Backbone:
């Protein structure tokens, strides 16, 4: 075997060995799906099973709570605003004050439900709602990896108590959810601004 043939033979063996070498995969950077935001447009929530009205987005669906496992909801005016494009829900409950449910008890329950998120929350900001004597309440903005970033309640302190809370059906990642959360939060603020008792 001549020198040049030996050289070519060794070179091809080296090239084959390099080509067959097992490579360690390099992980790709994490990416999130592109979110398409619908144009803001609202419609009136005016259902015969509820004692109030408000404006909600046209891209959300009202889904009345019909109960689970054979149990009926406490009130026929329990419903969700479902956002199919974001896979999130605004859970809405209504209670009549009286008949075993005092205003103080309902208010205490609302604060207790928010306080439960203190384990994960970095900060909870409370903002009072005061639109006259028959529309009062509190907005809770919950910062950090808590299950719900935004809740509120509205009441007239005599007959009506309405509560709403936002939940996303995904692992809690406040940074990646922030744009969607801000988008839905504006809709919830619109609910508060346009809320009226019948």
Residues:
């Amino acid at each position: 075997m001549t020198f040049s043939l030996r050289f070519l033979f060794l070179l091809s063996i080296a090239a084959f060995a390099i080509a067959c070498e097992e490579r360690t995969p390099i992980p790709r950077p994490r990416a999130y799906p592109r979110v398409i935001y619908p144009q803001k447009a609202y419609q009136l929530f005016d259902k015969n099973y509820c004692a109030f009205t408000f404006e909600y987005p046209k891209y959300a669906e009202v889904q009345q709570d019909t109960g689970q496992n054979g149990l009926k909801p406490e009130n026929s005016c329990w419903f969700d605003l479902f956002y199919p494009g974001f896979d999130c829900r605004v859970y809405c409950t209504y209670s009549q004050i009286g008949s075993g449910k005092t205003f103080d008890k309902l208010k205490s329950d609302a604060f207790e439900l928010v306080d439960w998120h203190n384990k994960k929350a970095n900060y909870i900001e409370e903002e009072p709602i005061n639109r006259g004597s028959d529309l009062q309440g509190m907005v809770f903005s919950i910062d950090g990896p808590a299950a719900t970033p935004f809740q509120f309640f509205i009441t007239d302190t005599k007959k009506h108590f309405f509560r709403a809370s936002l939940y996303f059906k995904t692992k809690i990642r406040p940074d990646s959810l922030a744009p969607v959360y801000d988008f839905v939060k504006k809709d919830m603020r619109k609910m508060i601004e346009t809320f009226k008792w019948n």
